[in-house]
Design brief:
Blueprint lengths: L12 H8 L23 H14 L4 E8 L5 E7 L11 E6 L7 H16 L4 H9 L1 E5 L4 H8 L56 H12 L1 E2 L2 E2 L1 E9 L3 E4 L14 H18 L2 E4 L10 H9 L2 E7 L10 H6 L2 H10 L9 H7 L3 E3 L8 E2 L13 E4 L4 E2 L3 E3 L9 E4 L14 E6 L3 E2 L7 E10 L8 E7 L5 E8 L10 E6 L7 E10 L6 E10 L4
Parallel strand pairs: 3-4, 3-7, 7-10, 8-9
Antiparallel strand pairs: 1-2, 2-4, 5-6, 8-10, 11-24, 12-17, 13-16, 14-15, 16-24, 17-23, 18-23, 19-22, 19-24, 20-21, 20-23
């Protein structure tokens, strides 16, 4: 159990009741009901009332809060569901959200049904009880409340998709929230720069307060440099589809995705589709999109993010709510169970390699600190950085321009420069991981891939080390190489070190590289740093 490092934005249940009554900036309480035949859907006021009542009835496992406000000032309500709900525990986190598009009201009903499955099943359904006890589940019920309320005002449907934000320099209203996220934002496929278009991406990434609120909430779940949310589903409508990243490209495994991630995303997605009868596909197989929720969540944080397109018709009547939400129960529970380590679906070997206490393919930021002691002597251009390395050559390849998985590595001097020695190490550089809680079991191993290359001017003063830093600050070198006066080209090699001496402790990993001589060339690269499960 870890102490909370980022407090959730909180609004008390009492304040929620005031807001749902229409006080403050929230929408009026009346006049928001659905048309006849759709009364079973929840308006914003009805949604707010229900989640406040359920949260009040289950304070032991539910925390109600708002992640921010819409353009019109409505609260963007969310809940956390978990045992010990007031404590930020070291448990995998899962996120569900509904209705980025305001005319897709079934998404709200889906999030409400997930909420009820969890709170109603806790203590009576063993599977749900285990999920709540071992996960921290977040639900953002209605991302686009302004648009949703506009879509049903006056007792009829207005077929409104976007939010209700004014567009500067235009008379047009609204941004498509699912084109406004910052990863690969821009034009491509069904994404428009025309403010009148239903897929208008906004004047800039995160120009909408609703997407900024989602962005900031996701950032708040970064603890010790590592994103805690492991899996997510955004509920949309229509088409009965299970979709995974990416939407911005037709390439199945682009440079910003690893083969393992693609395989696990697809396998989980296909399994969920077998349970709900949806069609599974990479998002771009439907059509190209940019600036979407799932691309942002995966591309920025490596969250295993999915979009579910619900129902087979637009605006299904309320008689379809139970069946359309109920068909997703197994898929939702399955994803929450897989969130602990999605790679486990790829078999025993990947489970052992990638489901241990630490796993970092270096593709996104996960809490490494450069120069943690303030004693590094290498110039900034030559220090460790997480980057896509440029290849360099001097009497053979020295810095490799390819990673062992994906695109990025930890590398000393990522740029090539005007000559091979322009951005090499030249001094000392250290990089330190965030804290790692090791299980109290034997058989765990630190594994990593590395490059240690140098020219023939190298000496024993040139070194590359891996160090384990214990809770008491003790540092133990567990792997070391030294230079010698032989030209050594770069190639990826592997290391494996037993972590048995530190089982049950909290440790940090350190990598230290030194170019100790004038005029020589030293290059170091590191990738796929892991602490494996006991075999």
């Amino acid at each position: 159990m870890r102490p909370s490092r980022r407090a959730l934005p909180r609004l008390s249940v009492a304040l929620a009741v005031l807001l749902m009554a229409g006080l403050g900036a929230a929408a009026p309480a009346r006049g928001t009901e659905f048309p006849k035949g759709w009364e079973g859907y929840h308006s914003y006021t009805e949604l707010t009332t229900e989640i406040a009542q359920v949260a009040a009835a289950h304070p032991d496992i539910v925390k109600l809060f708002s992640i921010g406000q819409s353009y019109k000032g409505r609260q963007l309500w969310a809940v956390k569901v978990s045992d010990n709900v007031g404590v930020d525990e070291n448990e995998p986190e899962v996120l569900f959200d509904g209705s980025h598009h305001s005319d897709e009201h079934m998404g709200v009903e889906m999030t409400l049904h997930i909420f009820h499955w969890l709170v109603d099943g806790y203590g009576t359904d063993p599977r749900i009880t285990n999920i709540v006890n071992t996960r921290e589940i977040y639900i953002v019920f209605l991302v686009n409340p302004d648009g949703a309320e506009y879509d049903i005002h006056g007792g009829r449907y207005w077929f409104w998709r976007k939010n209700r934000q004014a567009t500067p320099g235009s008379t047009a209203i609204g941004t498509d929230l699912n084109r406004n996220y910052g990863y690969r934002w821009g034009l491509g496929g069904r994404t428009s720069s025309n403010p009148l278009a239903i897929t208008y991406h906004g004047p800039r990434p995160f120009s909408a307060p609703e997407t900024r609120a989602m962005r900031d909430f996701l950032a708040s779940r970064v603890v010790d440099g590592r994103q805690q949310i492991r899996a997510a589903i955004s509920f949309h409508e229509l088409g009965r589809l299970v979709m995974w990243p990416y939407g911005y490209t037709l390439t199945d495994i682009p440079a910003d995705m690893t083969a393992d991630d693609h395989a696990a995303l697809a396998r989980i997605g296909r399994h969920m589709a077998t349970t709900n009868g949806y069609r599974p596909e990479q998002a771009s197989d439907l059509y190209i999109t940019r600036g979407t929720t799932k691309d942002y969540e995966y591309g920025t944080y490596r969250i295993f993010a999915y979009t579910f397109e619900m129902s087979i018709k637009d605006y299904p009547d309320d008689s379809k709510i139970a069946s359309e939400t109920g068909r997703n129960r197994e898929a939702v529970l399955y994803l929450m169970e897989r969130a602990g380590c999605p790679y486990a679906v790829l078999g025993a070997a990947l489970r052992i390699a990638r489901c241990g206490a630490f796993d970092d393919d270096l593709e996104v930021a996960r809490g490494w600190t450069v120069n943690p002691d303030g004693t590094d002597t290498a110039p900034a251009a030559g220090r460790f950085a997480r980057a896509d390395p440029a290849p360099t050559s001097r009497f053979g390849s020295k810095q490799l321009g390819t990673a062992t998985s994906g695109r990025d590595v930890l590398v000393t001097g990522s740029r090539a420069g005007a000559k091979p020695t322009a951005s090499d190490l030249d001094g000392s550089s250290t990089v330190r991981s965030a804290a790692i809680d090791l299980p109290a079991t034997s058989g765990q191993h630190l594994t990593f891939r590395y490059v240690f290359a140098h020219d023939a001017a190298s000496t024993s003063a040139d070194t590359f080390k891996a160090v384990v830093e214990a809770q008491d600050g003790t540092r133990t070198e567990v792997f070391g190489l030294t230079g010698k006066p032989v030209d050594t080209d770069g190639r990826w090699r592997s290391a494996s070190i037993s972590m048995d001496p530190w089982a049950g402790q909290t440790v940090h990993l350190r990598f230290e590289a030194v170019d100790g001589g004038p005029g020589n060339l030293v290059e170091v690269e590191i990738d796929d740093v892991r602490i494996t499960q006991p075999s």
